[in-house]
Structures are given as structure tokens and as C-alpha cells.
User: Fold this.
Amino acid sequence: MKHFISVDQLPVKDIYNVLRRAEYYRLKDFKLNHQLFVANLFFEPSTRTKMSFIVAQRKLGLESLDFHSESSSVLKGESLYDTAKTFEAIGANMLVIRHELDDWFDQLKGKLSIPIINAGAGKAEHPTQCMLDLLTIYQEYGTFLEVKVAIVGDIKHSRVARSNAQALQKLGAEVYLCAAPGFEDEELGMPYIPIDKAAEICDVMMLLRIQHERHVHQAETSNYLNLYGLTKEREQKMKDNAIIMHPAPINRGVEIDTELVECSRSRIFKQMANGVYIRMAIIMELLEEWGIINENNFKERKAFATVK
Ligand code: NCD
Assistant:
């Protein structure tokens, strides 16, 4: 992979390579001895994704270049393209980009000589979140085959839903969707089931936030938890080993009962921890692919493989 833009572009083999490498970094420290710069260009708010990219970069010994669009030349009308070209010119070896446009990558495709990682594209794709979610599910079940996953919430406006639904289906999981009226996206072509049924049959309940910032009209949320969210009553119907996931930020009491956020089934904070290792793995895959580094500890990584 030349750039890490979409899970759709990734062959199954490459997905497993990233998971395997992330597990290696989880179990063993690894640091590069080169001075390399990674620019983190976030044009939309971010806590977890941006900070876990920075932790990943620092663990790898890379220099993180921070950027705040609200105090940058974006305010003077500078485009995404010119911003990216600027970072390339001053010596960034890689760009990590989050932007509100679904297709922002089209503005940069073929025009830069450094690798790019998608840290969130509008409502279209969030491939690094997807990879950390895959790692969390794999750590739990040791396979994706026939694992039943319900993606629950604002499917229509969620990039996390889109990336995860496609990747999980490709890996052999059974994907179900649950959404309030108006939050469905028929284009995904996956079955919708009521949340009560999902809670009973699924191994993973993946909750999503209502994406208010992507709505034209403000959604009504006063009875949302009871009607469409994960309540304690629904959690009690879940299978013994079933888990709860959420990419966060969480709106406690809206899509999930606040007490469930930190309950024993919750893997929400584990997802965040896995985000660091996944992002280390993706950064390293691209730096190697571009010949920017030659890591050469393939054998040692193989010996550590916990992902088959
Ligand atoms: C998600 C995102 O930005 O798409 N957050 C994240 O990266 N962990 C989910 C969301 O904002 O609801």
C-alpha cells in the first residue's frame, strides 16, 4: 500500500500484516534511529486519533509536527493542497490527514512525493479506527469468521460504520446494522435488525455517536437511549462473552447507558490503547513500502506473531 486511505483498497493479506505488526509493537518496544518528521494535519476536531498518532510517532522515535487549522494559514484561505505541499517542502516524511470532505484525498492523489494516512474523511472512511477495532475483535475471538457484529447508531453519517462494515464482511464476520429511522444507509447492503435482537444474538455490540455536525437538521435525542441505544436491560440479554465497543467520543446516556461504558464487557478503553499500536504498524508499513526506512527485523516480528 502506497497511501493508507481506505480499507476497501486493502487485500485481506495486508490487513493481517498490519494486525500482526501491531501485536508485535504491543508486546515489544521498537524505535527507529533516523530523524524523520510526520505532520499531523487535523482539519476536524480530534482527541483520541490525533493523540494516539502522536504517541505512536514518539514511541517510534519520529518527530511529530503539530498543526492547528484554526491558527494556521487556512484562515487566510490556504487550500488543503497548498498546506500539504508546504509540509512536504519543509521536510515532512509523511502526512496524517483528517478533513471534513469525504473525498479530500482526490485533491492530493499523485501530487505528493510522501506517504499519506487517512485519519478520517468526512462521513466516508476512517481506516485506522477500523484497523484498531479489528485488532480488538481479533484479540477477543482469535478469528473474524462468523463473529456476529452489530454496528449500532447513526450509520448514515458515520465513517466508522462504513469502514468497519466493509472490512468485517471481507474478513468473514456476520455484520448486522441497527439504526433509528433516518439513520440507515441502504448503500451498505447489509441487513438491519432491531437493537433488542442484536443484543441477543451478537458477539460484538459496536455503538456509534449521533454525528450531529454532519446533519442538516438537529436530531431529537430525548428518548434515544430507550428506543435505539444500549440500555442496561438490553445489556443483560447479551451473550455471556459478548463485548461492547465504541470508537468514542461517547455521549453517555444517549447511545449507551453511562454505567455500561466501564462495565466488564466494555472494550472501549482497550480500543484506544490498541489505536497506538495499530498506528505504529501503519506508519511503519508505509515508511518501509516507500523505502524511507529499511527496518529488517521481519524474522523477529514473525517469532512474536500472535495473529495467525
Ligand atoms: C470517530 C470519528 O472521528 O469518526 N472518533 C474517533 O476517531 N475515535 C467517531 C465519532 O466522532 O463519532
In short: The two ends are 21 Å apart (CA to CA). Strands lie at 37-42, 63-65, 94-99, 116-121, 148-152, 174-178, 204-207, 243-245. Residues 7-126+271-305 form a domain with the Rossmann fold fold (CATH 3.40.50.1370). The chain has two domains: 7-126+271-305, 129-267.
